[in-house]
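Hi V.,

You were right to ask for the full record rather than a summary. Here it is.
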Amino acid sequence: MSKFHDLFERNRLWAERIKEINPDYFLKLAAQQNPDFLWIGCSDSRVPANQLLDLPPGEVFVHRNIANVVVPSDLNCLSVIQFAVEVLKVRHIIVCGHYGCGGVRAAMSHENHGLIDNWLRHIRNVRRLHADAFEHVHDEEEALDRLCELNVIEQVHNVCATTIVHDAWHRGENVQVEGWVYSIRDGILKELCSRGPETVDQNPEGEVEIGTAAARG
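Predicted structure:
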């Protein structure tokens, strides 16, 4: 019970600090949210979107799951994307993975993880589809980093392939879809790929080029 008490106390002190700086902060925040960014990230507790972007509450609309996966059967994620694009009118969708991802590591193993194996199958498919990218990789950690990057790029492809994003592009909305990776080792974000409405006619299936991620280290 004491741990919960500590959390409530930390919350109270945080709110007081904010109000000391800006007495109307929470009143304005309660009136509306107007974020420019949708963040699709991993559930890992070491990768909190607002903190690593150094942005306050209200600036980023966030969806997180194991290994930042976007699949057409996930109505939760698709509902978030639809709300972000059609209601909040975000202009940037960021798919952000991170090196050392436990979900990606689990997908690389041959162990039985139970229910989550149904989810990890999507990541295993990424490695299967891009097996050539691992042909000369013999170090396990290097392979993990490479799959973390390729997984991000594949999920960018999946976001771009949604009818939500395609419809927005055809309406003339400038929604950019970005693929980033975060290094827990040094706290730095790195861009892997970027797609926008200017590419929709060139590639109507929403496909993203694979293979540049590993070259960027």
